[in-house]
Amino acid sequence: MPRRPDRLAEPPVRLDRSASTPLTAQLSDALREAMSTGTLRAGERLPSSRSLATQLGVSRTVVTDAYQQLYAEGWLDGRHGSGTFVTEHEPLPGSGTPRDPVAPRGTGAGAVWERPSRAQLRRSGTVDLRPGAPWVHDHDRAALRRAWRHAAEHPPSDDPDPRGLPRLRALLAEHLRRTRGVRVGPENILVTRGTGNGLDLVGAMVRPTAGPGVRAGVEDPGYGKARTILAARGAEIVPCPVDGDGIRPEDLPDDLSLVYTTPAHQYPLGGRLPLPRRERLLAWARRTGAVVVEDDYDAEFRYDVAPLPALYGLDPGRVVLLGTLSKTLDPDLGIGWIVAEPDLMHRIVDIRAGLSDRTSGPVQAATALLLERGDLDRHLRRMRLEYARRRALLVEHLGPRLSGDTAGLHVLLSLPEAAVAPVIAAAAEEGVLVEDTSRTSHGAPRVHGLVIGYGSADRTELRRACGVLARAVQRHTGE
Ligand SMILES: Cc1ncc(COP(=O)(O)O)c(C=O)c1O
Asked: How much distance in Å is there from the Cα of 200 to the middle of ligand 1?
């Protein structure tokens, strides 16, 4: 079997950090099993030790030691320079039967690729620029302790309100008025566990009790989880094209029951929906009767641009606004909100009560204190400054190829299609993890490049990563 340097294999590996078996042994067992069962084939090239260590969130020694062991056993060859290849061997009958007398430890027959956590990647020195995470390392610890002590005093309830705690709803109404110019009262607010939870409830609300599911428009490219959530509620997903400014109302079909959109900072292209388009979108919704679901997730972070009004404020009767503290405070907190007018709100509350879905009372109580004492505002002010500095670093190093950088925590780095995979691989070689646009695309990506999140890397890490990316882009685009 000839060596195939172009056949880079992605070995299925599950590492269990709580197991007593050392990580090196777990890795060599998993690779041995993959080779013996034919998941990895003769001639295929394994990732470099650096790259695999980055992907798994382990130190490079773990990978080099595992590879060493497999060279010694004759499973691998070619260690001198040209890459690491699977040698020829007879695949053994029956899944999970190792050729080696050493039985696999810590891996099962159905071993799957396990993504390491962001914390594990950080510990292994990887700079993680995948989008979707905020910076959670500079919280005011004293404020958090105070909030949780307060939560401990929250009395148990045998009848929690599906809308959430009245005090928190009043504080959120006040917060939305000040930060988003949205004038609502507590009766317009339902406290969710985040945007995903909110969208799920809206998806359940629009779903008919019988017959075929509804048609739900989702931006394309767009937030993959929105597609998943609405599809799980039985909706037929209708991809709605976006351009650099955001969703295009004139391209929306008339038979949608709802359309999900991210007007504050389109995910992932980063456009901010201009006011005329906002108005045309709402006119379309009034004409067709569709509900517009406004995911307001990045609205708090803007750089050098004036705020745009929330869609909700322009036509409350047609819009359900979804907000979250996942980006501004902590995704682990599990707090977000739905804003809706009474009719829609009643339907959502009914659905929620029927699903026995709720947001933890103590978590709401802690959040209420953070809002009441101004801790959230202070955190937001600090983070705005920090994110603006990180965004400036990216613009300085990668400027001409970037778009969508006037808001939020991510940018789009456009690339020719053929350069995307080589740039990602070259970055991984140097310990920088980036993601392409495929997860945001409904079908084959229409937009090519990298979605770079700068929430979870500090400025030192980001500066190094920018250098790595700039070199990789130059090498693979010839610029
Ligand atoms: C487009 C978009 N909306 C919302 C969220 C936050 O979702 P949740 O509140 O469910 O954590 C994210 C997080 O990455 C996002 O990218």
From this structure: 13
pLDDT tens figures, 320-353: 999 999 999 999 999 999 999 999 999 999 999 9
Cβ of residue 196 lying under 6 Å from some atom of ligand 1: yes
Closest ligand 1 atom to residue 132 Cα is 14
Q: Is 360 in the same domain as 325? A: yes
Q: What is the pLDDT of residues 229-255, one digit of tens each?
A: 999 999 999 999 999 999 999 999 999
**d(CA 216, ligand 1 centre) in Å:** 18
**Chain centroid to CA 244:** 20
Alpha carbon distance 311, 299 (integer Å): 12
Q: Is 132 in the pocket of ligand 1 (CB under 6 A)?
A: yes
- Verify that 406 and 293 share a domain, yes or no: no
Following CA atoms 354, 360, 362, 364 in sequence, which dihedral angle do they give, to the nearest 10 degrees?
-90
Q: Are residues 268 and 403 in the same domain?
A: no
Omega before 268 within 30 of 0, i.e. cis:
yes
In short, whether 188's Cβ falls inside 6 Å of ligand 1 is no
- Using most ligand atoms within 8 A of CB, pick from 324, 412, 451 the residue to mutate for ligand 1: 324
Does a structural domain hold residue 123? no
Note whether 319 and 394 are same-domain residues.
no
Are 354 and 247 within one domain?
Answer: yes
- Evaluated on CA atoms 18, 22, 27, 32, the torsion sign reads negative
Same domain, 284 and 190: yes
Write the CATH number for 403: 3.90.1150.10
Nearest to 27 by CA among 8, 10, 7, 11: 11
Alpha-carbon distance of 194 to 364, in angstroms, equals: 12
The pLDDT tens digits of the residues spanning 76-92 come to 887 556 788 888 865 44
* CB of 456 closer than 6 angstroms to any ligand 1 atom: no
Structural domain boundaries enclosing 312: 141-374
- Ligand 1 atom having least distance to the Cα of 192: 9
- Of 318, 339, 374, the position where a domain reaches its end is 374
Instruction: Identify whether residues 215 and 108 lie together within a single domain.
Output: no
Q: pLDDT (tens digit, 9 = 90+) per residue, 9-54?
A: 777 788 888 888 889 999 999 998 888 888 888 888 898 888 888 8
State the pTM of this model: 0.79
- What domain count does the chain have? 3
